[in-house]
Design brief:
Helix content: over 70%
Radius of gyration: 19 Å
Number of helices: 11
Strand order of the largest sheet: 1-2
Number of strands: 2
Strand content: under 5%
Length: 222
């Protein structure tokens, strides 16, 4: 199925919904920082509205990737299929991490390994620590932040100006971010700098996932 057919089949209202949600979260977070500390606490609360929204978006995003996979797999090569399977499973991995692999829903006890090495004493990989080494700090914060920056600031340019990157992007079906998405993410990053709370990155995480789902969805319209 070609891109034009995909454009015609997918509704465009999710683009508006995701964009509005991102701006609403930024506005509410800014207001909370300036005038309502209690609201700010509720925004960054463990298992709060933003963390749950992040989890739901990751779950839906993985489902959307597999929707693309089964819809288009007959016309695609092996590397496109491999990329989409890994991509979808990665988003579902993120969903599982957000809900601590169902621990807070089901209520099962934390295994001994995670009691020793998870700084929140729950099931989850991104909060593991080994001595002074924190997976969350070095991989999911520092490393992922660099990846996000490169992807949203430079990937679109590299895709069109560097031949082998463009060919690989097309072969794998990598979603290409748009400049409006980059601007939303930059605005949210600037906002986070002015928010004074230890868990403020929960806000950025939610906005980033919103923007990434927007990138994933809008790539269907390229």
């Amino acid at each position: 199925m070609n891109n034009q057919s995909e454009r015609n089949n997918l509704p465009k209202w999710p683009v508006a919904l995701l964009t509005v949600l991102a701006f609403v979260i930024m506005l509410v977070s800014g207001y909370a920082q300036l005038a309502d500390p209690v609201l700010l606490e509720n925004l960054v609360l463990e298992d709060g509205v933003l963390e749950n929204l992040t989890a739901i978006l990751l779950l839906l995003g993985g489902g959307f990737v597999f929707y693309r996979f089964f819809k288009n797999k007959k016309d695609k090569g092996i590397w496109w299929k491999v990329f989409h399977v890994v991509f979808g499973l990665t988003l579902w991995f993120g969903f599982a991490e957000e809900i601590s692999w169902g621990q807070r829903i089901i209520g099962f006890d934390t295994p001994v390994f995670f009691q020793k090495h998870n700084k929140q004493y729950e099931v989850g990989i991104h909060n593991l620590t080994y001595g002074e080494f924190s997976i969350n700090r070095w991989i999911f914060s520092f490393g992922l932040s660099i990846g996000i920056g490169v992807y949203y600031l430079f990937f679109r340019i590299l895709n069109y100006r560097v031949g082998w990157i463009g060919n690989l992007t097309k072969q794998l079906g990598v979603p290409i971010p748009k400049w409006n998405q980059t601007l939303i993410l930059l605005a949210s990053a600037i906002l986070i700098l002015f928010i004074d709370h230890d868990r403020k990155w929960e806000i950025f995480e939610c906005i980033f996932v919103l923007v990434f789902m927007l990138t994933l969805y809008e790539s269907e319209f390229d």
